[in-house]
Amino acid sequence: MSQGILTKRDFEKLYNEKYMQLYYLAYDYVSDMETSRDIVSDVFAKVWKARERLDTDMLHSYLFVSVRNACIDYLKKRSQRSAFEKEFACRLEDFVVDDWEARDDRIRQIQDELKKMPERTQIVLKERFYNDRSNQDVAEQLGISEAGIKKMITRAFCQLRGKLK
Q1: SS3 3
Q2: pTM of the full predicted structure?
Q3: Is the dihedral of CA 94, 99, 104, 106 positive or negative?
Q4: Whole-angstrom distance, CA of residue 83 vs CA of residue 88
């Protein structure tokens, strides 16, 4: 390859030559086959989209660095999500009740309180916990910061705790 625009033929050759190496690099980081495939595919998709702007002499290095960085980002997000899920589980422990009737009543109370919250807060909670989307995804969808999402969730939990003690 040379300096200039990456042709379709050059891209296919690069893909065939480097895919498995990049896959194994990703797998060494994330230890998940599907995630590794996704990361490598995403990196190749970015390369194809930016094919007119890339320095083809540096492409091999770019691929490896991009996959490594994508793996690190994935691990950071997974770690943050895991910590958040643990915190959420701890907060929900207050709501655990052994008696099924009492538990159903408690769920109805929570649903009623959720309906009283501002619509935007309801959307955040639904997207975050029912649809299992990240804070970043929800923030982008609503056009607000991740910090704003976290504040809304924290306020919602405080409100629930205050009303349901």
Answers
A1: coil
A2: 0.49
A3: negative
A4: 9
